[in-house]
Amino acid sequence: MVAKNEQLETVMRHVGDGHLGQAIGGLENYLLAYSHPQEMEQLMRIKEDYRLMTDYWQQGYQDPQRETVYRRLLQRVHQLATRLAVSHAIKNTSFMLSTYKRARAVRQDWTLTSLRRDLEDFVANQALLELNADDAQEQQLYERQQALRCDLFDYIWTSRVWSDSLADAFVDLLTTPTVDTMDQQLVVSAMTLSLMNAFDYNKVRALVAVYQRSADEQVRQRALVGWVLAVDSTMIPLYPEMADLLRQLTADDDCRRELKELQMQLLYCLKTDEDSRIINQEVIPELMKNNDQFRFTRNGIEEVEEDPMEDILHPEAAEQRMEQIEKTMRRMLDMQRAGSDIFFGGFAQMKRFPFFSDTCNWFMPFYDKHPAIRRALKDERQRRIILGLMGRTPFCNSDAYSFALGFQMTIDHLPQNIQEMLGRGELSIMGDMVDDATAAQPAYIRRRYLQDLYRFCRLFPARSTFDHPFDDSDGGSRLFFLLQPAFRDTALADDVEYYTISATLLQLMDGVDRQLADCYREVLARDPRNERALRGLARLLFKENDYQRTLDVYEQLLELRPDHHNYLLNKAVCLGRLERGDEALKILYKMDYEDGDNPNVKRVLAWTLVGCGKTEQARKIYSQMLEAQQPEGDDLLNYGLCQWIAGDVVGAVGLFRQYAQTRGDKGFNAEAVFCREEAALLKRHGISDVEVRMMIDTIHNA
Question: How far is CA 242 from CA 187, 426, 446, in A?
């Protein structure tokens, strides 16, 4: 992890709380302990400005700008403390220190004027080489540019707080058509990595400006991901202009749509490990079982000629195998189309090439002029095959480099006919091939970039250096960004889909039932017939034991879908809980008649009969259920309560003890069940508090 200093963390808390004097004092103590002459001078200027402000206030001067001036002083302290925090991290984190020193040792002049000149010269030299092709000159050009890209990337992500003018200069650099798009994309990614470890409003502002102004969709989408993951609602009181930026952005329909898409795409990133498990443990083994019977051709899957006796002895086997392998392939492709990252597991082990020792290469757009690719693919035939495949595959950039570097090591070992088919473009890699229209879509561009970012955060050897968004140590505030107050206070709050997505996010978190219920109510305020929101609200109300309001919601759901089985069953449960057993039984008897084999109907019917005191009927149903199948859930507990109410105490004790055994390590909290959850039921049927205590003691003394 990035090294942090406790004194500076305390200063940051004072700044966040708006305590300027305490923040100045804490920062002064830090600077007295650690020698930073330049930063001490800056702090003394801030301290003097605050003293003058306090003097004017004490003398009774009325300053309408007092709040603004105070906030600006807090910002200056925050920026100074952030600068010191980054310096501390660099000095005390070996990977950051070596990167910081290397980037500044290889190039002395990092001014924007010098940098822009070099980047624009590269574009001009590219154009000249196209007119007068020279392989040696071209190779030298791209090797120099690759070195500059790596140096620039490392320089930016290890940079400290930016000034207003520096941020504005980078915006110009990232939106001008005279700089190569790859260079612009890499700069945006480097800014994003820098923001992972330290909030810098000027970098956030610059990324927002690039997102708004760039004509290059690749650059725009990287900027979008960067500023979204950097937004921190706790910084809004200190930088209220950030709230204004978000309100301005979300006034645009396209921006709101992209924010909602991005949030769902980040959720798919969380499913990557589970998707990899499904592919590795279920999909691939199924394909491998049939790898001797089929081959992949330009026309799809074809069966290999086999023993003619197979047609006589097992005429249906070939067709079944074909159906199974096609079903398996469809399953994987359906996962991909739905947004799953189906290639992560397969390429995870291919990130050990020396190529990936350079941080910038994890974010490098794939291009065949990359020096590493040129060295690996010296053979023109190999180059043609690789580029043909890369032009159609849905790989993210880092996987494309992994494939190219790995494929050149194995291509000569492939059968000659396979090599020939690859050369003619007649074979495709597993996965949906991508046409030009799809590849140009913002959502597709963003998905591939998120996959690059996810691989970096999960697989980069020095990944612990970065406080990345897929680490939920911050409670998931960056990953589940739409839940942040900063986004709630925008035009998104008028969008039904925003609350639907927020409900999905809240369901993935613990202890947020009240917020989840509020989301459902916001949806219903805008769309009263939204079935998903009604269903979710009903679950939460039932969990709170608010059975009357739960019943009201299920009545609304049944207006939408009168014959919905689960809605009817849940309505009956609510009626039973409200001691309206006769009404519940009318529903349940009809359901049992129409669907007599449904165990859930049997369970609810039996329990409702218990509540109505009709224990003999309930006992018959429970005994039949336990004879026909293994008891599930609370069957044994409910049957025990039925026996107890019916007067069979010995039978009830046996069932309660059996239930306790099935609970295992979870245990059976008899006191919670008898004294709270079912206390009203037991009391209604004449079971006294003394009997309850004796039952608890009997169970515990088993």
Answer: 22, 52, 23
Average pLDDT, the chain: 87
What does 424-444 look like in DSSP terms, one character per residue?
A: TT----SS----HHHHTSHHH
Residues facing residue 297 across a β-bridge: 300
The per-residue DSSP string of 186-221 comes to: HHHHHHHHHHHHS--HHHHHHHHHHHHH-S-HHHHH
Give the C-alpha separation, 161 to 201, whole Å: 9
With a CB cutoff of 8 Å and minimum separation 6, the contacts of 184 are: 173, 174, 214, 216, 219
The CA distances from residue 696 to 585, 639, 648, 651, 652, in Å, are: 31, 16, 16, 15, 12
* Torsion angle, alpha carbons of 674, 678, 684, 688, to 10: 10
Closest CA to 550 of 565, 563, 564, 569: 569
Contact residues for 140 (Cβ-Cβ < 8 A; gap 6+): none
Distance of CA 435 to the CA centre of its chain: 27
pLDDT tens column, 595-630: 878 889 999 999 999 999 999 999 999 998 888 777
**Tokens matching residue 126:** 């590219």
Question: What token pair was written down for 171?
Answer: 């915006």
More confidently predicted of 298 and 378 = 378
Nearest to 545 by CA among 574, 518, 519, 521: 574
Structure confidence by residue, pLDDT tens digits, 350-396? 888 999 999 999 999 999 899 998 877 767 777 777 777 776 678 89
Q: Please check whether residue 520 is in contact with residue 537, taking contact to mean a CB–CB distance below 8 angstroms.
A: yes
In angstroms, rounded to a whole number, what is the distance separating the alpha carbons of residues 502 and 263?
9
* Predicted pLDDT at 424: 62
Cβ contact 59:9 at 8 Å: no
Token digits of residue 592: 């049992």
Among residues 52, 86, 88, which one has the least CA distance to residue 70?
52
The model's pTM is: 0.83
> Phi and psi at residue 30, in whole multiples of 5°?
-65, -45
CB neighbours of residue 431 within 10 Å: 17
Encode pLDDT of 142-154 as tens digits: 999 999 999 999 9
Q: Does 290 score more than 70 pLDDT?
A: no
- AA identity, residue 594: E
Q: DSSP letter string over 674-693?
A: IIIITHHHHHHTT--HHHHH
Half-sphere exposure at residue 626, Cβ-oriented, CA atoms within 13 angstroms: 18
In contact, 17 and 238? CB cutoff 8 Å: no
- 535 CB contacts (<8 Å, ≥6 apart)? 557
Backbone angles phi, psi at 562, to 5 degrees: -60, -30
Q: Residue 78, class by beta-carbon neighbours within 10 Å (0-12 exposed, 13-18 middle, 19+ buried)?
A: buried
Q: How many CB atoms lie within 10 A of CB 289?
A: 13
> On the CB side of 622, how many CA atoms lie within 13 Å of its CA?
24
Residue 3, pLDDT above cutoff 70: yes
Model pLDDT, residue 209: 98
DSSP state of 161: P
Contact 502, 263 (CB under 8 A): no
